[in-house]
Amino acid sequence: MLVKNDRISEIVDGKRVIVKKPELLAPAGNLEKLKIAVHYGADAVFIGGQEYSLRANADNFTIEEIREGVEFANRYGAKVYVTANIYAHNENIPGLDDYLRALEEAGVSGIIVADPLIIETARRVAPRLEVHVSTQQSLTNWKAVQFWKEEGLERVVLAREVSAEEIRQIKENVDIEIEAFIHGAMCSAYSGRCVLSNHMTARDSNRGGCCQSCRWDYDLYQLSDGREIPLFSEGDAPFAMSAKDLNLIRAIPAMIELGVDSLKIEGRMKSIHYVATVVSVYRKVIDAYCADPDHFTIRDEWVRELDKCANRETAPSFFAGFPDHTNHMYGTHSRKPTHEFAGLVLDYDPETGIATIQQRNHFRPGDEVEFFGPEIDNFTQVIETIWDEEGNELDAARHPLQIVKMKVKRPLFPYNMMRKEN
Amino acid sequence: MKKPELLVTPTSVSHIDELAEAGADAIIIGEQRYGLRLAGEFSRSDVAAAVETAHRRGMNVYVAMNALFHNDKVDELADYVAFLAEVGADAIVFGDPAVLLTVRETAPHMKLHWSTETTATNWYACNYWGRKGAKRAVLARELNMDAILEIKAHAEVEIEVQVHGMTCMYQSKRSLIGNYFAYQGKVMEIERKKYEKGMFLYDKERDYKYPIFEDENGTHIMSPNDLCIIDELGDMVEAGIDSFKIDGVLHTADYITEVTKLYRRAIDLCTEDRERYEREKEELLAAVEALQPPHRRIDTGFFFKETIY
Fold first, then answer.
1. Do the chains contact at A220 and B150, CB–CB below 8 Å?
2. Which residues in chain A have their CB less than 8 angstroms from residue B118's CB?
3. Do A309 and A36 touch, CB atoms closer than 8 A?
4. Considering only A259-263, A319-323, B61-65, B109-113, which range has the smallest mean pLDDT?
5. CA dihedral sign of residues A141, A214, A196, A30
6. Are residues B148 and B96 in the same domain?
7. Which UniProt keywords apply (chain A) (predicted)?
8. A17: Cα separation from own chain's centroid
9. DSSP string, B193-220
10. Does B78 touch chain A (CB under 8 A)?
């Protein structure tokens, strides 16, 4: 019962090239992040509306902002998907029809959904929306995927617990688009099967209220004849279930050869600096591999680049096999990224070589900074003089969103970013 | 007035007769290869014996196939479903749609109960799985009484509600206990210890103890208290809830039997002599409290709680 999947590569002029290039799908927590993600090379973004989406604490989009986001993305040929992946309670049913119709009308390409209530309602009231099954359904086998295929859905996001081999088997057995996570924070539980947050803080994890209890420390004991025996020694870090973040940069070639249709970056709560950095690295990896898969190598600079915005250690999780203890964090559950976002380039004057920059973190003359962006190769320089908009010299750019000017040694483009080492 | 079914979890085949005496109407059994967080491990021959015993005592037998299956087990689901049909199990409890498709192909007359623990949160979803073939939905434990009653009012399938015992807060495929031992360098202890019973996580801030265990399905973390609403059954009985479940996972056979007796009494009183139930329900609650192991308190779970998000 093997189905024929799309051809992945072809020989062109004696050289193999990838003809089935996967979609690079990026998170966008607000309109600014959406624009950055698309500008830095995402083929599609996923966003949350005001309702029905996990991440209740993200900024989230109004319908008007969604419309603007879609228009912006369409100019780049990119798509916008909206997450509506809560497990709804009865009280969430009223208003759903109108919300889904509004998404369809705003030009959204599809929705990412877990609850059959939302799946069927979308089919009924907003049939032009593609429906993708969310990772919240924890799809772990080909037959479960086949069920959703038979329900007429276009795409499934697999559980983060499936391995490369399992993805291959699913692809072989079911002809449906597969979306898989490649980068970002991980639930250590099966998604949708964790209610720690409900119990510990009365916040509903499956409706976006997750308080991340899995990032806390606990002490492990054993009850034996009524006595509580600690299963840790003095000096051991406490028990933790905290998973390192996913980082599959080295597995991208494998994912492309498996025919995965969409490669997904997690992180609607992350900054524009994070989104820009991660998207641009994966954009380069995918493009380089697809152009010449047989002579491809991962460049160290790409790996280092991801490290510049990583606030946790990373691991390949289930993709390469069963995660051992090195996939977890004990004692400390985060770290400082090696770099911090310093400024966003608004403009550059080629006549004078002066860039206009919006401050995002404190910087001053003498700081060494690095510029990056889709149009340029990364370069570093030491900041010389900084002026304010009126041309007054400043001893530092210390106000958030302050507009300053400075001389840069190479041409820059709007949306390029400036970062400095922590 | 319609009596809801009293559904309980035996720890072994020999426990079933005791539970029948205690007044249970149905049992849920299975093995960890296919089922999640069971009170006892029932091999195929145990299942066959359990069905025989239970049917002789007029009880229904539901078998758990509610694990999240990976590809490696998909091909063997049909064989297990065929076996369950052959020995006469009364229903299969499932969460993964792979089981639903397998039952359609292998034993289309087998009854299905939809049970995912955390995701049965609205009446539409219950009816959806009903249209796909389920006869019953087992509600999420994170619902309050009003939500449960509203679901029942709209439900086209039977509704099962857990009224007593531990609930699952977290399931990971990861080997969290084994990994922690490995992190501590206690390599020799991993295989011996990680499957042992009686482990718990201590949460200093809340002064809670969460039972934790590992099995073939990964790592499970359970609620710090046992749910108990033996004194709050009235509204659900009146609404016609179809099944009340006592979950005995991580409890002893004696405890499960004694709790079953108390709920038998509560359901009988509540349906036959409501005034007397109202008078005696505090005593029933006190009797449950007296049965609790020293480290396990009881509470009302989410029945009277508001969650925000």
1. no
2. 87, 192-195, 206
3. no
4. A319-323
5. negative
6. yes
7. Hydrolase, Protease
8. 27
9. HTT-S-EEEEETTTTEEEEEEEETTEEE
10. no
Instruction: Confirm whether B139 is domain-assigned.
Output: yes
Interface contact A90-B123, CB threshold 8 A: yes
- Confidence tier at B260 by pLDDT (50, 70, 90): very high
Q: Is A90's CB within 8 Å of B147's CB?
A: yes
Which residues in chain A have Cβ-Cβ distances shorter than 8 Å to B174?
188, 241, 243, 323, 327-328
Q: Which residues of chain A neighbour B168 with C-beta distances below 8 Å?
A: 193
- CB burial of residue A350 (10 Å; 0-12, 13-18, 19+): exposed
Q: Do B195 and B62 reside in the same domain of the chain? A: no
Q: Which of A151-165, A396-410, B71-85, B186-200 has the lowest mean pLDDT?
A: B186-200
Sole residue written with tokens 């029809």: A97
Nearest CA in chain B to A233: B184
Min Cα–Cα distance to chain A from B26, Å: 26
Same domain, B213 and B105: no
Chain A contacts of B239, Cβ < 8 Å?
none
Residues A260-276 have a mean pLDDT of: 96
Residue window 9-68, chain B: list those with CB within 8 Å of chain A: 68
Q: Please tell me the total count of domains within chain B.
A: 2
* Cα A160–Cα A163–Cα A164 angle in degrees, nearest 5: 120
Give a yes or no: residue B306 inside a domain: no
- Domain extent, residue B87, equals 5-165+227-299
Q: Which of B131, B2, B111 is nearest to B61 (CA)?
A: B111
Nearest to B179 among A140, A204, A328 (CB): A328
Tens digits of residue pLDDT in B227-244: 999 999 999 999 999 999
B309 in any annotated domain: no
- The single-letter DSSP state of residue B225 is S
Task: Using the predicted structure, report yes or no on whether residue A4 has a pLDDT greater than 50.
Answer: no
B128: domain CATH number is 3.20.20.70
Whether B100 is covered by a domain: the verdict is yes
**Residue B97: enclosing H or E segment and its boundaries?**
helix B97-106
B151 and B208 fall within a common domain:
no
Q: CA of A308 to nearest chain B CA: how many angstroms apart?
A: 27
Same-domain check for residues B214 and B241: no
Spatial distance between the Cα atoms of B43 and B213, rounded to a whole number of angstroms: 20
Contacts of A288 (CB under 8 A, 6+ apart): A296
Q: Residue A1: its pLDDT value, please?
A: 37
User: How far is the CA of A358 from the CAs of A337, A347, A399, in angstroms?
Assistant: 21, 10, 10
A235: nearest CA partner in chain B = B184
Interface contact B2, partner A, CB < 8 A: no
Mind telling me how many Å the CA of A67 is from chain B's nearest CA? 26
pLDDT bracket for residue A53 (50, 70, 90): confident
Residues B60 and B154 in one domain: yes
Whether residues B249 and B273 fall in one domain:
yes
CB contact under 8 A, A116 and B306: no
Residues of A in contact with B219 (CB under 8 A): 241
Which residues of chain A make contact with B190, given a CB cutoff of 8 A?
Answer: none
Which residue stretches of A292-377 are H helix?
300-307
Any A CB within 8 A of B195 CB: no
Domains of chain A: 10-191+242-327 (3.20.20.70), 339-421 (2.40.30.10)
Distance from CA of B162 to the nearest CA of A (A): 16
Task: Verify that B110 and B255 share a domain, yes or no.
Answer: yes
